[in-house]
Amino acid sequence: MRADGNGYIGVEVGAELFPLLDLDEFVVFPSRSKDEQTSKSTEFFKSLLHRHLNLILTEQGFSPIATPEETVRLLFTQVTALQELVRAAEGVPRDALNIVARAAVRAGDSKVSTEHVRAAAAQVFTTTKAALINGVPLAQGLLDAIIQDVISAKKARAFLLLQEQTDHPLIQRLVDDRILHIIKRGYSHSDRPGIRYDVLQIDYGCYVQLLNTGSAPKTLLGDTSLGDGRVYDAMYGSAAVPEDDYRAIRRAVLDLPEKLAQLGADN
Hints:
Layout: H1 23-26, H2 34-59, H3 68-75, H4 79-89, H5 93-107, H6 114-132, H7 137-153, E1 158-162, H8 169-176, E2 180-187, E3 197-202, H9 204-207, H10 228-237, H11 256-263
């Protein structure tokens, strides 16, 4: 809350006050295994859609849908369309609702398919998220550089960034606008012992339009990731939420100072 002429009013996190829940970490459903993550995320969004639709139906005098499973059956062509929605939402409930609403408009009288979800996600990114940085040339330039360096050059969706560089204002702007997503903090690997990275991935809407082109990402973290076929199938073709494989990252490391220097921005 902002007071007139007096800056922000609030409390400072410190020894006596500390956050109990990081919502950014909660919504990506950290789990012990891929199967557990798939189950938790799918059930969460299934329940979310069920409750929202039933609220609308009840307000308009219609009988509610009996179960979340029935909601999925009525709304989607198959369960993989729902799971594509889970991927597209990046764990953010409001993005899921926005995407599924636009997908339903595209579907018309038909059920929502995977292609409807992909097209809607691209539209949401263009009209909402990308619009947030249109007036911030440096943020837009950095995003363009990341897309060129990560998606086009390395054929990857995610990249590594030195942990201390994650706090850079331009990176934080892209994270706050849900254009970049931090999916793991404090990652390190044997090739660079003692160096800590954060793993960031580019929003689904940034690259979904590339799925059918030669620029489509082939792996989560670059050409040298292990299990390329498994990760690619999980991301684009199967019902599983993508499995993050951090063991063999070699090339998907973003040189932020270099990108900033190219943009003429401060490090």
